[in-house]
User: Fold these one by one.
Assistant:
Number 1:
Amino acid sequence: MFGPAHQRPVETGTGPADAALDIRDLVVRRGGKLALRDLTLRVGRGTITGLLGPSGCGKTTLMRAIVGTQVVESGTVTVLGLPAGSRPLRSRVGYVTQSPTVYLDLSVRDNVRYFASLYGRSAREATETIGAVGLTEHTTRLARDLSGGELGRVSLACALVAEPELLVLDEPTVGLDPVLRAELWERFADLAAAGTTLLVSSHVMDEAEHCGELLLMRDGLLLAQLTPAQLLEQTHETSLEHAFLSLIRARAAEVRS
Ligand SMILES: Nc1ncnc2c1ncn2[C@@H]1O[C@H](COP(=O)(O)OP(=O)(O)OP(=O)(O)O)[C@@H](O)[C@H]1O
């Protein structure tokens, strides 16, 4: 029932240059084990794509390949029309890892202002971005005095302030309360509406409803690329969580038969 994603490519344009991401036959090995097994996918610009799957399925590895920090065994990764990791992409692609990358001895404001200055953004834009991640009340606090969730949001603000064309976010909502989580998803929707492409990983399916399209992974394989509505429709389920499980079982049955 569910063919591999590359049998049903998403129509986002006429060639790799039109897509935010164009990945073909990507194979990555980590620690002697295949972490990505022949992935092919395309992601259109100005979209929010959820990268979902259980821990260890290869989400971070795929993100690393997209931002150009992962050695790949074979295949191609084209980002905004250029080879992943190429120099012109540095200011056009933002990557927020699971471990916050901020200067602990600087305040929230100085961290975000520093990244703003690197990308030619103003102090006012830094202040606005701090507001967008819900940290206005903590502007003058040192990063080292913040909670894990707050620190993650500083890291996110440092990436957001650069206004990259492609924003790759590895589990950005982990440790956030439901209100803040909802606000961040609203912010992501605003960014996508303004033309930014977002690739957002999560291992919880309830995030999937915020995404225009889903990449569902398991054991280094891309099980499917489809919209949340298509996932529900194809599995005849009412919850995305159950739908993903149903898809995994259907795929396992296909492999056995
Ligand atoms: N530094 C490493 N050296 C060797 N193998 C690694 C390394 N990092 C990850 N792996 C392996 O690569 C595979 C994919 O890992 P990856 O971190 O991409 O998964 P993930 O889906 O992002 O997991 P999580 O949701 O837990 O972050 C796993 O089998 C993992 O054990």
Number 2:
Amino acid sequence: MSASRNEPLNSNPLATPLSNLRGVGPRIAEKLGKLGLSDVESVLYSLPLRYEDRRQIRKISQLHDHGIQVFSGKILAVGESQTARRRKKLYEVVVSDGTGQVSLKWFHYRKPFMQQRFIVGRHAVFIGEPKRFGAVREVHHPDVEFLAPNQSTSELTVTDPLSYGCYLPVYHLTEGLHQKTARKIWREAVERYAPLAFSPLPDEIRQRQGLLPLAKALQEAHWPSSETSFDELEGGTDLARRSLVFDEFFFLELGLALRRQGIELEKGFAFTVAHKYTAPLAKMLPYRLTEAQRRVLNEIKRDMMVERPMNRLLQGDVGSGKTIVALMSALIAIENNTQVALVAPTEILAEQHYLQFHPWLDKLGLRVVYLSGSTSVKDKKAILHQIAVGEVHMVVGTHAVLQQGVEFHKLGLGIIDEQHRFGVKQRAALRKKGKHPDLLVMTATPIPRSLALTVYGDLALSIIDELPPGRTPVKTLCLTDQFRQKAYKHIQSKIAKGEQAYIVYPLVEETEKSDLLAATEGFECLQKDIFPDFKLGLLHGRLRPEEKEQLMREFKSGEIQLLVSTTVIEVGIDVPNASVMMIEHAERFGLAQLHQLRGRVGRGAAESHCLLMRSERCSEVGRKRLAVMVESNDGFRIAEADLEIRGPGEVLGTKQSGMPDFRVANLLKDGRVLEEARQEAFQLVEGHKFLDNPRYDDLRLELKKRWGGRLELASLG
Ligand SMILES: Nc1ncnc2c1ncn2[C@@H]1O[C@H](COP(=O)(O)OP(=O)(O)OP(=O)(O)O)[C@@H](O)[C@H]1O
């Protein structure tokens, strides 16, 4: 086994400063720092961007015109000359290996330096891209490795890992750091430190999956052995990389498996389903549940009926009707004399859920309260008391519900309307509010499977894959200013027909103030100059909760015809009569966010439009992203595109989700390895409760080191 077995288990021999590498002084260390590299371990895990195939040293007669090649030869002639047409100076060196001749040319050079290096009769290895010009083969600005004075090319059998005879890594650089220097640094890191790398991934799994030990994988990932095929290297599917990716995914999935096991082994509530409240609620609804809603509700019911606490993710595209499923689940918990908490990411959304549930629960004789950061101290005190003594059946609120001091009499079900804003910590906090309550997490934007398996990998999954009937897909147009007046006319005609509209402003700069300013100015101008005959409302994050509530009520009732808003309406607002949304500076939004926003329209029977206004100067990438929105209404397609364009950290908001970007793995490319690693990890945990066997001490320790804090792994101690 590796060298680290002799070290104390918690010491990491790779976490050593960059200055321990030969050739890395303060200047180079600073450059490496710019690449995000802070210690030797980070250097080792920063894999090459690509590889140059310099395995074969060719005869000059075998050279071709496609790509970088390596050849050797003896210098026959040297000297300055001029280019034929432009009469620019150049330095020329003619070499031969007995099978042919090549002319090497430099157009930027220092003559004394060239004279000193290139001496007739010397042997060297040359690396460059040969091109044929008539009968002559030329190579411009080749790399040159001189052989020892007494060594001739015929004796050339050795390889030089920094220049030829092997695959050569090409690293990501920064200004002032050259490829050659980079290779030297990485080579030193790989030679001295990679052998110390150790992963306690069980041998039987490594063998079953045909993986390399970590040390070997790191070595191979930087300097692949000559047998590896170039196609695999280019495609990133080679064994070394796969081994590293597997290792990375395995520990995450192991953590998720342990967390799931930890919850499954708890003794929760075994509810009975008596339909005491759910049946009357179903009668009150103006619609029948869709097939998908019923299926998902049954999955939830099954979970709730067993003693093992539910730990389920409810996923569904915008407007698919998750809320009613959540409320039905809540009623089951209430029927069983327990309380329910529903936590939403913003006040507006929490309020909306509260306002929606209130009349129904009232009719059922049940008490629901609203709790947020802006609940007054006096009200809060009374509410907290009522929750604690069990007078309240359901609490709807923001993260204020998770804070200390909120004590439940008997919490049976926690629901988090997550919308990508909460993370594992919040889920754990909600769970701690009761004695092993059931947990239902709702998320609106569909997430690609690979992300779901990581971020929500410990949850069982229910998907509402059907929209309520009668919806017409939203038509999306991307417009520049030149069509602005037309767009306004369209909105006017919609409102004149009795429908409603939104106009949304983005965060202009990273401050709420300017955000508000743009919306305020826009609002005044729209009311005065564009829509003087209609009633407009302005909604933004700085309004007091009562003001927001009032505004939303007026919009819902149709009194306000056009709602001008900052992005606070992004999540969950549900006004089916609204049929057009105009989004200013649409290029500044993320795709998932745009999809969420657009989901506010198209919720009723009227044909709906989403008008994405973009500036003329919008970048190419921006245009591409908006094109995805125009083409597709499918949340999954949009989520994939978002992941591709912005990367997982951004898509999820790394901070909130607790998920870092992976060091080597790529969620888009490595989905298969993820599934394999997940299967192995879950299987291992299934067979060994909490990995309690001392045989797995290393594994537990490593897991704690990598993921313990972020995954809230209580079972690791
Ligand atoms: N089965 C159904 N038939 C008809 N309308 C429905 C049905 N289920 C829900 N609705 C209505 O569809 C609209 C969207 O439902 P809901 O707000 O629950 O969606 P959601 O999945 O939470 O979406 P979002 O993520 O956008 O908030 C609401 O107006 C709701 O009343």
